[in-house]
Amino acid sequence: MNGMLHNIVAALVFAAAGILIFVVAFVLIDKLTPYHLWKEIVQEHNTALAILVGAMSIGICIIIAAAVH
Fold it and tell me: What are the distances in angstroms from CA 30 to CA 2, 3, 46?
């Protein structure tokens, strides 16, 4: 039982670390672009930018998952 609890805690810690790294990377990319991503996607309905940001997010998540694994 103790080993199972250790595995659950480890999974939660790695998940939290992965989410935190993703948020930091997303904020950094948002700051590096010449426009505000959220405003451009939501208010201006820029579908191409939404697809690009989605693909970028998946790529970052794959890199984080590989690093954590």
Answer: 42, 40, 15
